[in-house]
Amino acid sequence: MDLAIEEGAAFVVIAGDLYDGAWKDQSTGQFAIAQLARLTRAGIRSVIAFGNHDAESRVTRHLTAPEGVYKLKSAKCESVQFDDLGVVVHGRSYKEAATTENIASTYCPPAPGMLNVALLHTALDGHQGHANYAPCSLGELQAAGHDYWALGHVHDHAVRADHPHVVFAGNTQGRHIRETGAKGAVVVRVEEGTIVHVEHRATDEVRWAHARVDAIGAADPMEALAAIQAQLRPTVLGADGRPLAARVSIKVDGPLAQRLRADPAWFEAEVRGHAAGVSDALWIERVKIIANDAALPTGLPPELLEMLSQALEDPDCLRAVENAIAPLTAKLPADVGDPDTAPLLASARGRDGAALVRAAKALVAARLGEGAH
């Protein structure tokens, strides 16, 4: 809304999923109506086609829209004509969330002598991670005769075609680590009834990023942490001053991989501490350790590996381990231990025999591997 007002937009189109399902309280609808009213006061009209998240069957409560806000119905395609602008907006909302029919085939033909904008919530010809709702082909949209197809549903910005334009604006805010990069809206500039420029503009308040670090060959945790810091610095700059939520995936091998796998919680805490040295606006969502298993010496004799594997498959053995360790953990002070032994002690206190054997195996393997070098 801020962007539309700052740009002095003639009108705004919203291609579905304004709401995410039924409102838990009236404040959701009130907020949306208040924001749309800001556009009306600025002389900006808006047209909305509802999608699978805010289909008629999912959002049963509605508030009266301000003047200048047009909500398209689901029964058939509607056309909203702005004679003073020389523009017609065509579109159709979803009645059911799982709309699997090709509703693009039901759209009104373009109006002669006008700029024709078609508003559609669709996966087009399919998109990974998105249900294949309102399927249609790119060629079908291009052949329909409209000047601009404003598409919703897919959360990534993409220009699928020019002349006519077929454009996914993407969502305005990334919601989780799978929605990385700039998120926002599309500003379309028209001169004398012709589209002359299409530009994606960021509107996200927080950005998500995936920092992938190659630390193969690193000798110790400090070297790995230095590599992570080096990768995070440009990642933070890429957020354009916004708070950044980042996942760190680090590739390691050899004894270092064994050590990090033996105590991932300690390493994640170290990563968070080093991230704080990069930026106050950086939050680490998760640290993922990717070990080159083919290059990992186990550090354990084959006989011991076989014995531990059998123990993990033997419920009686695991119960015996739990019963044997319980009297010992009961005598330990609450604050005993160090980062290396924390997973081992947590498994022991939780009387989880399988987790205890796995943690012990990882710890011993890591320490034997370090000793071999």
TrEMBL record:
UniProt keyword annotation of Signal present: no
SUPFAM superfamilies: Metallo-dependent phosphatases
Record's keyword terms, sorted: Hydrolase
Pfam family, one: Metallophos
Signal listed as a keyword: no
InterPro entries: Calcineurin-like_PHP, DNA_Repair-Maintenance_Comp, Metallo-depent_PP-like, Mre11_N
Domain Calcineurin-like phosphoesterase, residue spans: 4-156
GO molecular function annotations of the record: hydrolase activity
Classification via PANTHER family: COMPONENT OF ATP-DEPENDENT DSDNA EXONUCLEASE (PTHR30337), PHOSPHOESTERASE (PTHR30337:SF7)
Organism: Sphingomonas xinjiangensis
Protein name (database record): Calcineurin-like phosphoesterase domain-containing protein
